[in-house]
């Protein structure tokens, strides 16, 4: 937990933040509307006597009163998918529409890619890519289990991604749910900080910058790119978005999100960020009793 002390100067109620990080996280699932409506899913949970609470910000996200959310009837039938509540935020901010072409650059094991497909009513194309072959099988399994037929799976390094294989040459939207140091997952995974180091942050920050730049390049003018991580480190968040707006044609834009969060930073450790970074969301564990996340929305410009 010691590494979290570096965030004391930027978190409004650091004691509440720290205390929340020490509390285990409850079990959440997302209703898979490709297979069943929210109403049908809630009725099924009631039939099998599993208690639930719908998240205030999104009725498709349920907090379940069971220790084994993967063993319910609704889960076996693909009506629900185990997904951390806050991890359902980036696809909602991406706001994909039926019929669009969407690139999920870092997609495995597929929680967000299948959520994107559901938000598109499974109409259009979701290219779910991941560079790690070992994680691709979980991605394919989840796509099949949840009935997401609009998903096409690829296994490439997103930094050098080629669209030559496709009949189109740009995407409408892209999600970069980047590899990161995972500080914000401490409630789910108490070992998350065991291998923490500033060198690890610096190293993954370079990879994140490369992936986000490629996502912007591959998205059409006027299209949307969402950048997210489950970490608090500004080097992996604001600094990565700052790099993209300096190097590529894009700008940070506002979004609606009906939950509590802090704005993105405009300064960290002597580095200044563009004031538009305040439009990004820093979701801390004490805000909504969730894990931690960073989300920024970009519009691709000419
Ligand atoms: C935070 S996880 C993604 C979780 C996923 N979006 C979900 O919701 O299930 C980050 C992923 O990035 C992948 N990754 C790491 N470096 C990559 C790269 N250069 N190109 C594409 N994927 C990469 C990792 O294998 C990992 O699966």
UniProtKB/TrEMBL annotation:
BP GO terms, sorted: tRNA methylation
NCBIfam families, per the entry: nop2p
Higher taxonomy: Archaea, Methanobacteriati, Methanobacteriota, Stenosarchaea group, Halobacteria
Key words, A-Z: Methyltransferase, RNA-binding, S-adenosyl-L-methionine, Transferase
Binding residues annotated for S-adenosyl-L-methionine, in chain numbering: 106-112, 130, 157, 177
Organism the protein comes from: Halopiger xanaduensis (strain DSM 18323 / JCM 14033 / SH-6)
Active site: 230 (nucleophile)
InterPro entries: MeTrfase_RsmB-F_NOP2_cat, MeTrfase_RsmB-F_NOP2_dom, Nop2p, RCMT, SAM-dependent_MTases_sf
Pfam families per UniProt: Methyltr_RsmB-F
Name of the protein described by the UniProt record: RNA methylase, NOL1/NOP2/sun family
GO MF terms, alphabetically ordered: RNA binding; tRNA (cytidine-5-)-methyltransferase activity
PANTHER family: NOP2 YEAST -RELATED NOL1/NOP2/FMU SUN DOMAIN-CONTAINING, TRNA (CYTOSINE(48)-C(5))-METHYLTRANSFERASE
Domain spans labelled SAM-dependent MTase RsmB/NOP-type: 17-301
Family under the similarity heading: Belongs to the class I-like SAM-binding methyltransferase superfamily. RsmB/NOP family.
